[in-house]
Every structure is written in C-alpha cells, then in structure tokens.
Amino acid sequence: MLADCRQMKCCERFKPHYVMLRGRCMRLDHEYQNGDGESYSRHFTFKTLDSRIISGKQRQYVVYFGDRWPEVGIFPRVYVTEGDYGVASFKLSRVNMLPRPDEALYGDIDFEEVEEFQCMPNCNRLDLAVDYTTSVIKHRFTFVLDVFYSDRGYEDYEEIAMVSLPGFISQVGGQLGLFLGVSVVSAIYLLQILSLKVHQMFIETTEQKIRAARGPQ
C-alpha cells in the first residue's frame, strides 16, 4: 500500500478490529491531515487480495470511518471497487441539543423518516458527513482512495431556548412597566387585602340576615 508516496507495511500499520454487523476488519490509526482541502488528502492505493469467491480475487473493499471512540459503526462507509478512483471528503459538525428526548429524533436531523425504529441520538454529539465520488482508472487490480477534510474545523450547531417562563414574565413586565415576579412582602400584602375583603363581605352578609330575621320595625 502506498500513502503519500511512502510505502508502508500493512501488517504494522493495520490492526485487527471488529465492526458491528460486519465482523473482523483491519483498522488504520494515527494518520493525520496536515492542511485544509484536497491538496492535503491522504492517498491510499490497495492491491487486489486473494478471495475465496469464484474468481479468486477481491473485487471490492468496504471502508468504514470511525471517530475517537474505539467502537466502529456500520456508518459512515464507502465501497471501493476495482478500477475506481474514490475520493471521500469529510465535514464534521458538533451538535448540542436541549435535553428533550421526545423531540430529538434521528429523522428530524438528517431529513429522513425513521418509522420502524425511533432512534434517539445523543444530545451532545459529533456528526461526520461523507461526500464520496468515484472515477474510472485504467489500472487493473488496483484500488485507489483519497480521504480528506475540506476544513479541519467543524460546524457548531447549538439549540437554545429563546423564550422561557422567567424571560417571558420579564418581557411582559418591561412592556407594562412592571417588575419581574412578586416579592414575599407583595404576596403578604395581597393576602391581607383579600382577607379584609372576605371579612367585610362576611360581616355585611351576617347583618343582612339579622335584619331579615327581625323583620320590619
């Protein structure tokens, strides 16, 4: 395998690793991009491997892309076919959502409908988007793949609450010239006024009943 015109020993750089729903694969770590854009891409050339199928040769590779965690999921992935020149560009996004699991659906984020399984993603996560294109090359028994980040930075998406209950009361109070909330003294004063009103109504009602019982004088 060649990478940036440097011949590498695959057995030293690739280590066995298991991928979910796939099985035993070979993982390459500690390959870093030194600049932005395609001109700083990591270039890999694979030779054809032996296979147990009828032709005896491996005609396609499946390449999985992981993150900083040791687990490797089934997505994102690309298929590198013999005689193809594949170019995979990455874009990383950081998503910070409010802790509302009833609204954090996978389909709402990727614009896809997930009907059978309502998968709940992590509220704080990194999403890796892959744009993969291929072109035909003349060399047989060769697999070529370029991988790069279009920008070594990442896009940051953060969900914030624009209006909360205290904020709403504050805005209404500002429009009406009021203050935010009710203090303890104000609450006691309101309760005192209500109790006096109720006491006065009770006295008036009692006096009316007494007059009605005595009859006309």
TrEMBL record:
GO function terms (MF aspect): sodium channel activity
The source's domain of life comes to Eukaryota
UniProt-listed InterPro entries: ENaC
Q: List the Pfam families hit by this protein, alphabetically.
A: ASC
Cellular compartments per GO CC: membrane
Write out the entry's keywords from A to Z: Glycoprotein, Ion channel, Ion transport, Membrane, Sodium, Sodium channel, Sodium transport, Transmembrane, Transmembrane helix, Transport
Q: Where are the transmembrane segments?
A: 172-191
Q: How does it sit in the membrane?
A: Multi-pass membrane protein
As for subcellular location, the record says: Membrane
What family classification does the UniProt entry report for this protein?
A: Belongs to the amiloride-sensitive sodium channel (TC 1.A.6) family.
Question: What protein name applies here?
Answer: Amiloride-sensitive sodium channel
